Recover the amino acids of this structure.
């Protein structure tokens, strides 16, 4: 399955790039930085005036020269390489940072609790899901000022291993580091938690984000990393071209700052979400957002080298419903056809709601594509020539053969939630795939066990860290 895309040609990308340079030259970046942060920028040639950072032409030229070098290296390394398409293996991960859960029993939204996160950890491990890009739930019934660490510690205490949580406050960073040490996780260079410097588009960085990133750099030896999630129609223009120009300008400015601090570049980041003009709410799904994301990917490939990609980020449905299954099917099918092989499952409402029921539905949908991508054997046993010769003359009686009994589990897709019965059979005992999924999610959740491998001593140490973090947050 392969799809190719092109939104803008090189002449258009060059024109939009030149527009982005005009914006970069004209727009100051407002940064509530530390003295150390500003010293790096000044040494690189940036002009710092209070909270405002400007980029003289000599700085722009240095940054663009480095970007051009990276494109040259990529081009040289891929000059004679054949175009590669992703393999057929599909990997799933849970994601989201939800303050709400779609309740398993009522299918209504309510605030997520620590108990919900505990059950989620047990359920995900029981289903054999090994990757989590975010915690899915941020509990609302814990100390608010330490909710990030509370989430991280709860995952450690209730999972096979630690999984990523974003550090929201510099004061909780030491607790993350200490918890990793207790759990035996690596904390130098590649910590399991995320400590990014998040940008408030357009062109703003708060002191809290600077403190988190610079403290992580100092304590972990990890380079500073910027994060962006521009919103079309609010933080950037609503049009694809206008958003691309502003996003490129902002990304180029971040390139200069990261080069100044760690000698590293920063990718061109496209729009991450759009404002829905009907409901006046942010949205991470839909064909409009897909075009925004493709535009950003094309600009990155144009400047740095590489192949542009397109994907659907999420679904807007708030609860498990026909809309959620409709959106999930559209996005998953499109992403796979576009070459994506890692799929996020279990979230609703643009990752602001987590759902155990949606998790098992999504997991089965991925099973559909895994079955589609499976290897198909043409050996003698699978052909079953003797069975064909013996059965075909007698009519459609392959259900009676040993060949069918031997291979149907391998050959047939056997979903647990979709109902493929004939209408008259269904009428005698009607069922609904969402009801079936709810029952299965409840069974799995009830039987799932805590697979945390830590000793009692390690668990007690992490519980002590939770109490310390809560006490610190309450004192501030």
């Amino acid at each position: 399955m392969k799809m190719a895309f092109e939104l803008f040609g090189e002449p258009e990308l060059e024109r939009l790039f030149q527009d982005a340079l005009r914006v970069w030259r004209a727009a100051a970046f407002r940064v509530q930085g530390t003295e150390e942060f500003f010293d790096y920028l000044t040494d690189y040639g940036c002009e710092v005036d209070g909270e405002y950072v400007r980029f003289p032409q000599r700085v722009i030229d240095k940054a663009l020269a480095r970007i051009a070098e990276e494109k040259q290296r990529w081009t040289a390394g891929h000059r004679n390489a054949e175009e590669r398409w992703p393999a057929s293996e599909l990997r799933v991960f849970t994601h989201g940072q939800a303050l709400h859960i779609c309740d398993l029993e009522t299918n209504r939204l309510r605030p997520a609790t620590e108990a919900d996160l505990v059950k989620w950890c047990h359920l995900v491990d029981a289903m054999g899901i090994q990757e989590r890009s975010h915690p899915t739930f941020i509990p609302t019934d814990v100390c608010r000022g330490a909710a990030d660490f509370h989430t991280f510690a709860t995952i450690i205490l209730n999972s096979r291993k630690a999984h990523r949580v974003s550090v929201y406050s510099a004061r909780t960073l030491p607790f993350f580091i200490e918890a990793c040490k207790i759990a035996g996780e690596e904390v130098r260079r590649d910590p399991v938690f995320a400590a990014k410097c998040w940008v408030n588009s357009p062109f703003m960085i708060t002191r809290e984000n600077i403190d988190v990133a610079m403290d992580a750099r100092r304590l972990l030896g990890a380079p500073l990393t910027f994060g962006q999630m521009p919103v079309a129609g609010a933080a950037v223009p609503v049009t694809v071209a206008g958003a691309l120009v502003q996003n490129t300008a902002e990304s180029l400015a971040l390139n200069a700052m990261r080069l100044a601090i760690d000698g590293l570049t920063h990718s061109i980041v496209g729009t991450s979400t759009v404002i829905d003009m009907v409901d006046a709410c942010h949205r991470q799904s839909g064909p409009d957002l897909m075009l925004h994301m493709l535009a950003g990917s094309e600009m990155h490939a144009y400047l740095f080298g590489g192949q542009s990609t397109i994907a659907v980020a999420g679904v807007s449905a708030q609860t498990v419903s026909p809309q959620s299954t409709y959106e999930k099917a559209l996005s998953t099918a499109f992403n796979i056809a576009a070459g994506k092989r890692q799929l996020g499952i279990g979230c609703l409402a643009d990752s602001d709601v987590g759902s155990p029921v949606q998790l098992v539905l999504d997991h089965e949908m991925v099973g559909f594509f895994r079955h589609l991508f499976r290897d198909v054997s043409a050996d003698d046993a699978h052909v079953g020539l003797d069975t064909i010769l013996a059965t075909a003359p007698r009519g459609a009686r392959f259900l009676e053969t040993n060949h069918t009994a031997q291979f149907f589990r391998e050959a047939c897709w056997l979903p647990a939630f979709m109902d493929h019965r004939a209408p008259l059979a269904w009428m005698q005992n009607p069922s609904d795939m969402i009801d079936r999924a709810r029952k299965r999610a409840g069974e799995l959740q009830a039987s799932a066990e805590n697979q945390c491998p830590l000793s009692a001593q390690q668990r007690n140490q992490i519980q002590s860290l939770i109490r310390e973090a809560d006490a610190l947050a309450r004192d501030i």
Summary: The chain has a mean pLDDT of 93.
